[in-house]
Amino acid sequence: MKIMKLSENRKFSKFIIYLRAFYNAFYSATEQINARKLLNKNMFVTVPVYRRAMSEEATNGKVSPSPSPQLTQSAPAVEMAQMAINESSKITFLDQFRAFSKFGDTKSDGKHITLSQSDKWMKQAKVIDKKITTTDTGIHFKKFKALKISYGDYNKFLDDLAKTRKVDLEEIKKKMINCGSPGVTQVTAGKAASAVERLTDTSKYTGTHKERFDASGKGKGIAGRKNIVDESGYVTGYQNKDTYPAAH
């Protein structure tokens, strides 16, 4: 019974994590959509008014009255909408720290991070490589003599690690900011294997397969699959086809 309860609790914890992530993503997307709608609406109203005023000045030589206060007051709204879009798209190092400090721990408050969570973060950001290993992170993390460390101590941990391994601290933080949400792996375009390249190189084809492609590697279509009989009446290899005068 205890084993069944533990498995049920784990399933429920995972469900809560996924539900929270979905809610955060949906809320952020909704904010961006509303901000863009407000921006487009105000731009649609103000731009035609100013264009009309400029055209009247050009044709009549008179200074047209200024737009109504209601329209001029919409400029701050446009700026606020643009600021909301920019702010929502920015992710700080503190935001990533909070996200990874909660990764795999439903009871975490986002203020302290463990060595395991830090290593997962660094691996996802590709900070852990030949220069920095998990052994290095373990040695420097244990200097704080705690299972979890705060945001301030974590910055000291990275500073000490960067100085010891002679790596740029700002470059480390940049990678850790841009690595995406916890558990998200970035896919890069792969290179075709040598066997695949050899099999797709038409210049190495032989026999009937060679006849299906021209010198540039472009397929000939049906002409490369069937022997089309020339029924024009000319012998094979005749160079002056269709040059005989039609009057004869």
TrEMBL record:
GO terms for biological process: microtubule bundle formation; microtubule polymerization; positive regulation of protein polymerization. It holds the Pfam family p25-alpha. Signal peptide: none annotated. One of its GO terms (cellular component) is microtubule. InterPro entries: EF-hand-dom_pair, TPP/p25. SUPFAM superfamilies: EF-hand (SSF47473). GO terms for molecular function: tubulin binding. It comes from the Eukaryota. Belongs to the TPPP family. PANTHER family: P25 ALPHA-RELATED, TUBULIN POLYMERIZATION-PROMOTING PROTEIN HOMOLOG. This is Tubulin polymerization-promoting protein homolog. The lineage of its organism: Eukaryota, Metazoa, Ecdysozoa, Arthropoda, Hexapoda.
